[in-house]
Fold:
Amino acid sequence: MDLSEKIRDITGEFMAEIHRETGLPVLIYDAGGMIVQAVDQSRIGNIHPGAEKIMKGLSQEYAVTPEEAAGDPLVLEGYNCPIYYEDKIVGGFGITGPLAVAKPLARVAARMIDLWLADVNLQEALRQSEKKYRTLFDSSTDAIFIIDQVTNCFVDCNRAAAGLFGIAEIEKIIGQTPYHFSPEFQPGGEPSRELVKKYNDRVYEEGSCEFEWTHAGPDGHPFPVHVTLSPMRLDDRKFIIAFAKNISARKQAEKERENLIESLRDAFENISTLSGLLPICANCKKIRDDKGYWNRIESYIQEHSDARFSHGLCPECTRKMYGDKPWYKKMKQKEKGKSQSLPADNKSTGVWDREEDGKNTP
Structure:
């Protein structure tokens, strides 16, 4: 709708009311000086000379005096003045009749139309602004709530807010409080009801606040959210705008990271126990633990690391334990015969003993 249409819509009833009360003809001009509204419908569409001068900036007003009207039967006594919108002339208002009545009446009427135009434009701007912000409000992926600071109740929310609670209808949230969708107590042990009021009061004391909160879905299952609160005043009433984001995934990732760090710490501690100075017996080779007990070396290592042992006998211990046994002597003679039958460069040491009297023995 352009300004001419706005002027016609605003002035239609007003023009008719002036005519009913005074009996005087009223004219409305557009930005070109053309008559767009008139009591005498036959004049609509005509260019008014006086109004044309006003629209072109040649005159601030146009008045026809009784003397001018008396000298020309086609000219009627009256007064015409401009209509302003944002400091620009966008139309004109004229009344035909005695100048003493027409002039003040036309001026008052024109100024009232100025104010009405400004108000209409403001209302339109507010509607557009509301539409724009409502679109942003509803399309946000973060849950947004509007809370009455006095009652602590939700007065509005977006679709994402309903989704946060697992609720299909926004109407089921309006009128409820945040603690209605929360467990009775928060993780720190404080009652949810008391904490809601505490945080809502803090917003107007500090300007805004952020914190983590535990909500609960329709099934009662708790889930963590990050909440940001900011104050908002409308018509002298205190409201709070709240942004909430489900952080369950982040909390799970943090828990997994902490578990991994703990596992690595445990592994490091186990590894580190085998470093440094170990008290070992010079004779039996047992190791003393931190409790003062002496342990076989393989038991100690297995307890303090991931190493595991398999048992056998080295050649020297085999000779000490079984050297006087007939089967051992027979085995050694057999190995010696095999060794002598091999070329010199193919001789190898025995399997059971590698060293005897400081020399390699086949």
User: Anything to note?
Assistant: Residues 99-139 form the longest helix (41 residues). The longest strand covers residues 222-234. The CA atoms of residues 279 and 292 lie 10 Å apart.
